[in-house]
Protein: SseB family protein
Organism: Paracoccus fistulariae
Amino acid sequence: MTALDELATIPFHDADAPQRARMLSRLADTELIVALGAEPVGDDVELRMFPLEDGQVALACDTEDRLSDFFGQPVHYIGLPGRVLAGLLRAEGAGLLVNPGHPSEMLLDAAMLDWLTGALAATPQEDLARLRLTAPARDTADALAPPLAARLSDMRGLISGAALVGVAGQGGAASHLLLIAGADPERQPQIAKALAETLAFLPPQPGGVDISFTENATAPGALFFDLSPPEQPEQPKAPKGPPILR
């Protein structure tokens, strides 16, 4: 079972929209093994394309063995991150077949790849005008807590914690804010981009969800994600031995 298979508790094309979005988010971060039509020459590669009713598709798997098993023999290939491959195929108007015959099999047409690359282009909004922090809406907390916990756990060591809070604005309009604590300022843009991508794959929330960095991610009623390193248990002192008799 690969990371994509573990998410495919329901076949991709039978899953609901949030589950499909989680699988696509994982696909974007996965190193895919892509079949080539010929051995690469320098920086030039020719993806092996297959004609289907809706157009040409490339073939990729998340392990080398799966790709060679599909063809029944070794095949030329290249490893590309899912997000890079999606961008290349979108530019060509082609689709992508992933992991045929496995739990995470998915057939992504050009329109789906167009949506995927658009979601990956999501960036956090920096121009914020906020008034008062509140507890997050219950529906928002229920929808975002599990996927955010999974994504934030990948950042353990880069951040010390995070908190999801509600934001009350003028006229009673509400939105949400994800506060990130303990991040190195030089890494904040990359962390914000990764979290913005994650949110782009989740169900939209009323007012949206912004991202901000802080020294201490605390607020009344916040949904808190503790990512501080676990405390090491104190090692028991070795018992003293009997006195040495001379």
